[in-house]
Write a structure and sequence with these properties.
Blueprint: E1 31-34, H1 48-56, E2 77-86, E3 92-98, E4 109-110, E5 113-115, H2 123-135, E6 142-147, E7 151-152, E8 157-166, E9 179-186, H3 187-190, E10 197-201, E11 209-218, E12 221-226, H4 227-241
Parallel strand pairs: 2-8
Antiparallel strand pairs: 1-10, 2-3, 2-5, 3-4, 3-9, 6-8, 7-8, 10-11, 11-12
Length: about 240
């Protein structure tokens, strides 16, 4: 997340689990099902021109994942994340891995993003600022396409995903206090439900939790995309397939 003194990592951006579950490891939760019966987003819908057209003239659709069980009484707080689609030979989604020194959710996969500050002109400005502060991604390379519906986390962060095209040529400068790694995953992989796995923790009452995971094998490294990050990607899938 950003290095600004009052921008703290919103829990939904980095995937939250019920705090009463000690040593929770999402990889150990059984897979309920994989959505192999759903169609992948066609490649022609993933081009820059098609994405611009889709956000300029959105279809009728509904987000599939909107909120997690609420486990706090504090007032909701606004947050924004950037969903950066890098325009390489095939479009890629830029993601981060949180630094191991972070006191919570270390090593988890996230979009660049964080809390909306009072100085931010709007949600998109907050997402752009956070991407710059967190990984050094300059707004010079970013073309904002639009926003997806908010995703509310169990810690009451109301997260708005800001989807953008990113032109190659940028040089990243990750904040080492917050980011251990920055990597890219093919958009086509993430927009194929054959890679969308459903999980469930059912402890009754407010601790029941359902989420998606989208593990990606990046050479020898498994990038375990799950929780809020996977949920927002699932909503992007629903938007593009509608």
């Amino acid at each position: 997340m950003s290095s600004s003194s009052h921008s703290h990592a919103p829990a939904g951006v980095i995937n939250v689990v019920p705090p009463l579950v000690a040593n929770f490891d999402p990889r150990g939760v059984p897979v309920d099902r994989v959505d192999t019966d759903l169609p992948a987003v066609p490649a022609q819908r993933l081009t820059a021109a098609a994405l611009r057209q889709r956000f300029a003239h959105p279809p009728l659709w509904e987000a599939e994942v909107r909120r997690e069980p609420r486990l706090t009484d504090r007032l909701p707080a606004q947050a924004a994340v950037l969903v950066p689609i890098v325009q390489r030979e095939q479009p890629m989604v830029l993601l981060t891995e949180r630094a191991s020194r972070m006191s919570t959710h270390s090593g988890q996969i996230a979009f660049p993003g964080g809390r909306v500050d009072p100085e931010d002109a709007n949600i998109a400005a907050a997402a752009l600022r956070e991407a710059w502060e967190e990984v050094g991604l300059s707004a010079h390379y970013i073309e904002v396409l639009g926003q997806l519906p908010t995703y509310t986390t169990i810690t009451a962060f109301v997260v708005t995903p800001v989807v953008a095209l990113v032109q190659p040529g940028f040089e990243l400068r990750p904040n080492p206090g917050e980011v251990a790694d920055v990597f890219e995953v093919p958009l086509a992989f993430l927009m194929n439900p054959a890679h969308h796995r459903r999980h469930q923790v059912d402890r009754g009452g407010p601790l029941a939790r359902h989420w998606f995971s989208m593990p990606y094998q990046d050479g020898p490294t498994e990038r375990f995309v799950w929780g809020a990050t996977a949920g927002m990607l699932r909503n992007l899938y629903r938007f593009l397939i509608a």
